[in-house]
Amino acid sequence: MSYITKPKIVHPQSPRNELGLTVRDYEGGMSTLCAGCGHDSVTGAIVQAAFELSIPPHRMAKLSGIGCSSKTPAYFVRQSHGFNTVHGRMPSVATGANAANSDLWYIGVSGDGDSLSIGLGQFCHAIRRNLNILYIIENNGVYGLTKGQFSASADLGSTAKKGAANNQPPIDPVRTAITMGAGFVARSFSGDKDQLVPLIQAGLKHRGFAIIDVISPCVTFNDHEGSTKSYEYTRQHFHPALHADYVPPSKEIKAQYDEGVAMPVTLHDGSQIVLRKVSGEYDPTDRASVYSYLEKHHDAGEIVTGMLFYNDKLKELHDVSEIVDRPLSSIEYETLCPGNAALQELQKSLR
Ligand SMILES: Cc1ncc(C[n+]2csc(CCOP(=O)(O)OP(=O)(O)O)c2C)c(N)n1
Ligand code: SF4
Ligand SMILES: [Mg+2]
Hints:
Layout: H1 38-52, E1 60-64, H2 68-71, E2 81-84, H3 90-100, E3 105-111, H4 112-118, H5 120-128, E4 133-139, E5 142-143, E6 149-150, H6 173-180, E7 184-189, H7 193-205, E8 209-215, H8 231-237, E9 238-247, E10 262-266, E11 272-277, H9 287-299, E12 303-310, H10 317-320, H11 333-336, H12 340-350
Parallel strand pairs: 1-2, 1-3, 3-4, 4-8, 7-8, 9-12
Antiparallel strand pairs: 5-6, 7-12, 9-11, 10-11
Helix pairs in contact: 1-7, 3-5, 4-5
The chain binds thiamine diphosphate, iron/sulfur cluster (SF4) and magnesium ion.
């Protein structure tokens, strides 16, 4: 239960990060989700990623909407800022928080229902504004919290637990994000921590909107034969296109990568993501070819995963809006507020 504090027992030999913290310091309350829910594995990957990046817990802000997925911020980095918002409205609350304090690590966790139905407009506008946030969609093809109705990401022909087939075409968050102009677009699977953890690290380090669509099976309502978001289906149709290795600024790239197969991308703080092609020609910077690759493989029933599209040329929200570097929340109110006389003067000029 999330209100029961986990006993914090730390083995004296537990590895510590640069801040001297152990992985236990990045955990949260006890999960109330169903045993085996994919969302708990995503939580585990976030815990590991934040621990390895040595993020100071009090410098992280975690936001969510409504759904089983949106409950998960309660289960990681307990000493961070948290805001469980209204269904589909996480992006606007995150935008406000980010505008006021640009100096935090922002992570948003949402569901396919939360982001692709009621929150689709907010999702698109957060991308359009290039909000600096890692936005994770825990995608299970259903509204888990309200007992398993098809969501907008359910594939055509996939069946519900009682057998009814979905007859509406899906909205793919990855292709939507690429179309809307997101600079960092990835897809992964809750059952593949090796792939997911570096993607989360790279997404947290990316300056701008980073989305990871994580196929995260709902064991209670959508893990049966006929589902295209089950553990078995995802494992069978998993198609990695591009691996991402995250390399922190303090470490140099040691592994040997063949030219044309690997592509190192330097992030704003000097860390790097090394993108490794798994097979054939795949250019993660060519929007049109990525889009057609995704469409072709989706139509063949495959789930393309990895770091799928990257564009580091985009200006982030604060740069576009020319907001001062110093977080607005740290500026004294008197400095920010021009005062009554100045406001009266401004109003007069507008009459
Ligand atoms: C304004 C509003 N409309 C509808 C609901 C009911 N509701 C709660 S969660 C949810 C869908 C959650 O689905 P998803 O985002 O996919 O999360 P999951 O539970 O599958 O992780 C809905 C429709 C609500 N809470 N608020
Ligand atoms: S209902 Fe589904 S999504 Fe919700 S906690 Fe249970 S398994 Fe997870
Ligand atoms: Mg869902």
